[in-house]
């Protein structure tokens, strides 16, 4: 089980409380597809991903980004059992979606950058530490049931 | 991985916008890296890594200067950083994984100070540029 200090929990929940999940989720996923274009391989049925503008405006990208970040919220609510929280999702990503777990790490890093851009100075080094730790734990949990 | 002319324009634009703040960005990048990835501190046992450390500031200045130099010679990063590449290979031998960590922190610094500057396209270009710098600095490792 991952240990979270009281400070880390506070930094995570105080940031999360101010996150617009729909906007941040859409932005994070769009940036993933733009900054690491090979990640588009999982979204061939999303329609037009031909340019950054197309990706940012793509309604399927927005919807899926919202879905992904909403799911991330489950980790924030269950910091003491992230493994259990993502057990089924991990199996899904392995057996049905066939997603290389490296992609979870890439998305996590992008999410941290999106948070930094939204929160500016409030996204202190201590904040970044807590959030990089969280995205790492989530990535690990999603990869855990791979076989 | 090749930098397109659009990438080069984007990167030069970032450093032009950052201007005189580059040194501060360098220092904050290191501060964030040490805080976020404590294992990176193992390369600086001889440094005071406390808040406001003059040594971290000084080193951040050097790191920023190297990035600026690379951006100014973006058509030949390998040439511009050749001596630094030798230094990293022969003396410093920083494990290659750490350049990604530094890069991540630099992006966070730019994002937190200049969210409007770091559009998705610029983000992509800057990420590619930072990867290219890391590749050059580790190119002579073996």
UniProtKB/TrEMBL annotation, chain A:
InterPro entries: Globin (IPR000971), Globin-like_sf (IPR009050), Globin/Proto (IPR012292), Hemoglobin_b (IPR002337), Hemoglobin_oxygen_transport (IPR050056). Residues 3-147 form the Globin domain. Transmembrane segments: none annotated. One of its GO terms (cellular component) is hemoglobin complex. GO terms for biological process: hydrogen peroxide catabolic process. GO terms for molecular function: haptoglobin binding; heme binding; metal ion binding; organic acid binding; oxygen binding; oxygen carrier activity; peroxidase activity. Pfam families: Globin (PF00042). Keywords: Heme, Iron, Metal-binding, Oxygen transport, Transport. The keyword Iron applies. The keyword Heme applies. Involved in oxygen transport from the lung to the various peripheral tissues. Heterotetramer of two alpha chains and two beta chains. PANTHER family: HEMOGLOBIN FAMILY MEMBER (PTHR11442), HEMOGLOBIN SUBUNIT EPSILON (PTHR11442:SF7). Belongs to the globin family. This is Hemoglobin subunit beta. It comes from Lepidothrix coronata (blue-crowned manakin).
From TrEMBL, chain B:
The keyword tRNA processing does not apply. Keywords: Heme, Iron, Metal-binding, Oxygen transport, Transport. GO terms for biological process: hydrogen peroxide catabolic process. Residues 2-142 form the Globin domain. One of its GO terms (cellular component) is haptoglobin-hemoglobin complex. CDD domains: Hb-alpha-like. GO terms for molecular function: haptoglobin binding; heme binding; iron ion binding; organic acid binding; oxygen binding; oxygen carrier activity; peroxidase activity. The keyword Ribosomal protein does not apply. PANTHER family: HEMOGLOBIN FAMILY MEMBER, HEMOGLOBIN SUBUNIT ALPHA. Belongs to the globin family. This is Hemoglobin subunit alpha-A. It comes from Lepidothrix coronata (blue-crowned manakin).
């Amino acid at each position: 089980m991952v240990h979270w200090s009281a400070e880390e929990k506070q930094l995570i929940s105080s940031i999360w409380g101010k996150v617009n999940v729909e906007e941040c989720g859409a932005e994070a996923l769009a940036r993933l597809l733009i900054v690491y274009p090979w990640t588009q391989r999982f979204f061939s049925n999303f329609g037009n991903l031909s340019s950054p503008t197309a990706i940012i405006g793509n309604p399927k990208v927005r919807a899926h980004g919202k879905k992904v970040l909403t799911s991330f919220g489950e980790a924030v609510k269950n910091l003491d059992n992230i493994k259990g929280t993502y057990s089924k999702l991990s199996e899904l990503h392995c057996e049905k979606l066939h997603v290389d777990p490296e992609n979870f790490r890439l998305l996590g890093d992008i999410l941290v950058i999106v948070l930094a851009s939204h929160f500016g100075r409030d996204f202190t080094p201590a904040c970044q530490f807590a959030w990089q730790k969280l995205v790492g734990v989530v990535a690990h949990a999603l990869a855990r049931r791979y076989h | 991985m090749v930098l397109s002319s659009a990438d080069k324009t984007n990167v030069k634009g970032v450093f032009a916008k950052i201007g005189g703040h580059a040194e501060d960005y360098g220092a904050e990048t290191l501060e964030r890296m040490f805080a976020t990835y404590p294992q990176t501190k193992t390369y600086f046992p001889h440094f005071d890594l406390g808040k406001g450390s003059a040594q971290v500031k000084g080193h951040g200045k050097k790191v920023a200067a190297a990035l600026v130099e690379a951006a100014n010679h973006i058509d030949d990063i390998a040439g511009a950083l050749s001596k630094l590449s030798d230094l990293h290979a022969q003396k410093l031998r920083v494990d290659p994984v750490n350049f990604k960590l530094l890069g991540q922190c630099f992006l966070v610094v730019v994002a937190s100070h200049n969210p409007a500057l770091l559009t998705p396209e610029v983000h992509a270009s800057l990420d590619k540029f930072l990867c290219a710098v890391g590749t050059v600095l580790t190119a002579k490792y073996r």
